[in-house]
Amino acid sequence: MNGLSCGTSNIVGVRFAVYPMADNFVEIIKGALKEVDTSKVWVQTDDITTCVRGRSEHVFDVAKAVFIQAAKTGTHVVFNGTFSVGCPGDSEGDTYMSEDDIRLNEEASRQESVEAATHFALYPMDNPDYMQVIADQVKTAEKHGTFTKGVHYASRLDGTANEIFASLEEMFVDASKTKERAHVTMTATISANSPSTKDN
Amino acid sequence: MNGLSCGTSNIVGVRFAVYPMADNFVEIIKGALKEVDTSKVWVQTDDITTCVRGRSEHVFDVAKAVFIQAAKTGTHVVFNGTFSVGCPGDSEGDTYMSEDDIRLNEEASRQESVEAATHFALYPMDNPDYMQVIADQVKTAEKHGTFTKGVHYASRLDGTANEIFASLEEMFVDASKTKERAHVTMTATISANSPSTKDN
Ligand SMILES: [Ca+2]
């Protein structure tokens, strides 16, 4: 693929970054990464973002853990990422698909109660019913109690980081099952410790 | 639409945030906004992101200007946003579609030479040929000299912020013309003044 590399159909990936709004942002990011076990995922970091790939549960486990470990410092921290599954393309990192399903960071993440606010958007590709797929998945967040409202181009979730990531993961995984070998992406902007008044 | 509000078919929007990695991030953001003329676009800011909607040229003009005005401080600043056109939905902000095409911030933006690095991804919705649409648009960035390489789930651009936004705008607008009333979104993570070594 010219200009766009993806993955095999069942590998899940996220390309993301965590932004601590502080002079010591490098220290906060490095500190967070030191707390996170990434041994069950393929990881590559460059000067713009980090890409994590593997089984769905480990991709979400690692993304959540990095955000929570950075946000627990109390600094205003934002996670921004795009999750992807089913993108036609190469197979680098396939070896991680044979890992078991035990999440390595869940216990540590559960110990932190970080309040967060999120805008997310689901993009089911090549699917004429995509608006219905999105509407159906929003019902999952309503059921979880994390859904706050629709905004232009996105939906808003509020809750703890653990609750928000649980909603995002369930919506993403369920959306990927609406079609054979579905290619689905999901953007998420997750903010903690913002000095702005919550708009919910 | 339950949980997802969009726009009329020809209105363009971007939902974005600019992240200055500094203790005085509020001051940097407010300072940048003070330099940007937003009188030709609909703007709404909450505690997570800012949404700008209107004619394509003004949406890109304002997004670029906010990023450049924040990045010219020399602080490590990242712009993260999703551009959207053709999303079925409401019509709030339609009044801005009657503005002329003179960009209010282009002159000020042109005066700054901010080096930047970008990951972007195009999502042409409900289109079986979407991978070809993406590949075709990447050729535009190659022609501009901004394209660096494909990475998992995205493509990398390098250049000045002015060059990068020109490529993003052309690719986005051209992709939106590949189909009648096309719904296309484009994510972009644009980084300036990063302390990390460029991976290009
Ligand atoms: Ca994004």
Number of strands of chain A: 8
The CATH class assignment of chain A is Alpha Beta
Strand order of the largest sheet of chain A: 2-3-1-4-8-5-7-6
Quaternary form: homodimer
Bound molecules: calcium ion
Annotation field: number of helices of chain A: 5
Q: How large is the share of residues in beta strands of chain A?
A: 25-35%
What pattern of helices and strands is seen along the backbone of chain A? EHEEHEHEHEEHE
Biggest interface pair, residues each? A-B, 68 and 68 residues
> How much helix is in the residues of chain A?
25-40%
Rg calculated over all Cα atoms of chain A: 16 Å
Overall, the morphology of chain A is globular
List unreliable stretches of 5+ residues of chain A: none
Q: Please, what is the average pLDDT of chain A?
A: 93
Instruction: Note the main sheet of chain A.
Output: 8 strands, antiparallel
CA-CA gap between termini of chain A: 42 Å
